[in-house]
Amino acid sequence: MAPTTRSGVKPKTETERKSPKIIKKKPKTDKKVTEKKTPTKNGKAKKEENVEDVEIEESPNTAKSIYEFTVKDIDGNEVSLDKYKGHVCIIVNVASRCGHTKSNYEQFVELYDKYADSKGIRILAFPCNQFGSQESGSCEKIKSFAENKGVKFDMFDKINVNGKNADPLWVYLKDTLPEVTSGKATGKDIKWNFTKFIINKEGIPVERYASSTKPLTLVDSLEKLW
User: Fold this and answer.
1) What family is it from (predicted)?
2) Distance CA 223, CA 193 (A)
3) DSSP code string of 64-120
4) Full-model pTM
């Protein structure tokens, strides 16, 4: 039998003393007010309010960098993004039949060919069909299209960037860098094909650019990170 103290309380065992105290985090709640109408004798409805605690759904996105994500490449293979540690990256949503396709692919190819070896830049292209259905082909066709453009940088599986089925990586990118136009915030959602995110060597998104921004104009921003 375990000894007791003078107060009659059993002392903690060695295991209990060393075991950390586990504190369960209470979910965030808010008050939900519902209105109920009850008929009275005079025929008029009496309003009654019912107040109850409801749990608030918190964003599951607690990532600190892109290195915490795993995605699929254009061949369907899983790729952990920690392979890009120490590299400055550009992440972009691409489409094969967009008005921005020709100039963006040509300049991304030039940017990669010039700086992949000398500066270690990496470009991660994610096909997306959410804007004008301009990337409707299969991954096999998209890959063939990109290869014909001279692409050597990494191509990934076709994804959604907006909505409830948005890829978790892109949710993180949008949460970290909402769009700002002329000094005004215009929301988190991706507006069109070829939205670009610059990622620093620690895997953190640092700049976001709209579709109209040409890849070669990013060099000044990239040079600050190399």
Assistant:
1) Belongs to the glutathione peroxidase family.
2) 25
3) SSGGG-EEEBTTS-EEEGGGGTT--EEEEEE-SSSTTHHHHHHHHHHHHHHHTTTT-
4) 0.73
- The three-class DSSP label of residue 35 is strand
Residue 50, pLDDT score: 59
Q: pLDDT > 70: what percent of the chain? A: 71
Is residue 47 helix, strand or coil? strand
Position 2 in a domain: no
Q: Are 47 and 39 in contact (CB under 8 A)?
A: no
Residue 53 is assigned to a structural domain of this protein: no
Q: Decide: residue 91, CB within 10 A, 0-12 exposed, 13-18 middle, 19+ buried.
A: buried
Query: What CATH number does residue 199 fall under?
Result: 3.40.30.10
What is the domain count for the chain?
A: 1
Report CA torsion sign: 140, 215, 211, 122: positive
| Span 155-202, pLDDT tens digits | 999 999 999 999 999 999 999 999 876 666 678 999 999 999 999 999
Which residues form the domain of 84? Answer: 66-223
Cα gap 124→101, rounded to integer Å = 15
Kindly state the tokens that stand for 212: 């109209």
pLDDT of residue 52: 56
What six digits make up the tokens of 202?
């620690």
